[in-house]
Amino acid sequence: MAVAALELLLDATDGMDVEQALIVESATYSLLQAGPEHQAWLASRTRRELEDEEDVVLMSRDGTTLRLTLNRPHRRNAFNAAMREELLDGLEVAAVDSSIECVVIDAVGPNFCSGGDLDEFGTLADPASAHLLRVERSVARAIHRLRDKVTVRVHGACVGAGVELPAFAGHVVACADATFALPEVGMGLVPGAGGTVSIPRRIGRERFITMATTGDPIDASTALAWGLIDEID
């Protein structure tokens, strides 16, 4: 079901405006959240209790450069609600302050981002509410709107949102140890952090489908050759 939904989604959004395509992606993701494949995946795992966290994104400024640093190394920088909100806060600063010429997004710890925090999956009241929240509070859209100013520096594991969000940036720099993977289909879902919009526009539909349906990681050299990243440092 997830693979079929992914193919239909890509057909529907081919050539569509980025912001409209993000809405269609979210709607598809929400439908699959209520489907049997994802529900079976949820039932198969034990969720840890959620903790309140602060400063999961560190914000600093050096001259005209604003730096946003993912700061959940104990969770491999898993993307959670707190990280989403703090990234949006930082990107809003860059959007309203014309003196900021460059936004750099990076991360502490051995990995850039291990994808969505699995302990938050299924915690919202219903898929419709989740869809409206994703559309209203979209980091993908915020990066896309600032893309000409945004450089993302990635390293280690870049999984799910850790691949999808950087692909919206104007420039992506990877360390040689970086790997990139999309595991969502194995959870009965499609990439839901904007990846069905950002990644095909960088590497093409067929390569994206291969990444999404196999879940197999690619290395930095392959990512550079495909255009998923722009530089290896």
Walk me through what this model shows.
It is built from ten helices and nine strands. It is globular, with a radius of gyration of 17 Å. The protein has one domain (2-232): 2-enoyl-CoA Hydratase, Chain A, domain 1 (Alpha-Beta Complex). Strands 1-2-3-4-6-9 form a six-stranded mixed sheet, covered by helices on one side. A three-stranded mixed sheet has the order 5-7-8. With 233 residues, the protein is α/β, with parallel strands linked by helices. It is 42% helix and 16% strand.
What is the mean predicted local confidence, pLDDT? 95
* Count of runs of 4 or more consecutive helical residues: 10
Major sheet: order of its strands?
A: 1-2-3-4-6-9
| CATH class category name | Alpha Beta
The amount of beta strand, in percent, is 15-25%
Q: Quick one: biggest sheet?
A: 6 strands, mixed
The end-to-end span amounts to: 39 Å
Count of the separate structural domains: 1
Low-confidence stretches: none
Helix percent reads 40-55%
CATH topology: 2-enoyl-CoA Hydratase, Chain A, domain 1
* Structural class designation: alpha/beta
Gyration radius, to the nearest Å?
Answer: 17 Å
Order of helices and strands: HHHEEHEHHEEHEEHHEHE
Shape: globular
**Going by CATH, what is the homologous superfamily?**
2-enoyl-CoA Hydratase, Chain A, domain 1
How many DSSP-defined strands? 9
